[in-house]
Hints:
mainly alpha; 0% strand
Amino acid sequence: MNQLPGTGPVRSIVKFLELFGLLVILVATLFAAGTDVLEMAAMREVNLSDLLLLFLYLEVLAMVAVYMESGKLPVRFPIYIAIIALARYLIIEVKDLDTWKMLAVGLTMLVLAATVLVVRYGHLRFPYPPDDK
């Protein structure tokens, strides 16, 4: 049985599990976002940390959509999610953070933002070769 890599029943099972996992992530994200929106509506209050949480959900949905469409996951999406999560953490915990922790979170966000710039520059300057499929 001389099959090409990436073909056959194992590949089909992996693709099915991948799709199933993406659907679970999609449904869970929609459920979490819906729950948070209903909670905001019930409290009749929306603050910045709530908006950042909604942006986190939006980035996860965008990441799932791109992955389902192209089968590829740009490394930028998880970095965007990390930056937003750190910004939300900084806003929520600002009263309890000492100066060094605040600087560490801010510096981490700066490093992640610089990473996005480097990755984008690399993609523009050294693009991937076209797929030969």
